[in-house]
Write a structure and sequence with these properties.
By secondary structure, this protein is an all-alpha fold. The chain is 91% helix and 0% strand. The longest helix is centred in the C-terminal third of the chain and has 61 residues.
């Protein structure tokens, strides 16, 4: 049962770390921005609640193990890390929102610049067309 608990704790830590890494990722372009925003929203809505339930189950298992066995320092450190994830997610998701907001502003600015350049190009083409018509 200790081995099962250790494996479950490691698995939960890995899944929490994967969500955190995804949430803290900086998008390089608009497509990645949209993809990351959707993935993090999905993780917050479905995966984090699942992991929270699994954490409750694991807490009960650890309560039993603490009553009937002795845990190693490594097991206790892994368990401590596992139980601190929910508290760490608040700042992680806040940082994600900040990063997405900044990336969105950069993408919108870039898009405005592209629209401005496109309009200038169209105006140049309109002048060329007028010159061709008057020739």
């Amino acid at each position: 049962m200790r081995a099962d608990s250790a494996a479950a704790a490691k698995q939960l830590n890995n899944e929490f770390e994967a969500i955190a890494a995804m949430a803290l990722e900086v998008p390089l372009d608009t497509d990645e921005l949209v993809r990351l925003k959707e993935q993090v929203a999905k993780a917050r809505a479905t995966k984090v609640p699942e992991l929270t339930r699994a954490l409750g189950v694991e807490r009960k298992r650890i309560d039993f193990l603490l009553t009937h066995t002795r845990m190693s320092v490594a097991e206790m450190e892994t368990n401590t890390e596992m139980f601190t994830w929910l508290n760490r997610f608040g700042p992680i998701f806040e940082k994600h929102e900040e990063t997405m907001g900044a990336a969105r502003m950069m993408s919108e600015s870039k898009l405005r610049d592209q629209i401005k350049d496109f309009k200038a190009s169209l105006e140049g083409l309109a002048v060329d067309i007028l010159e061709c018509e008057n020739w």
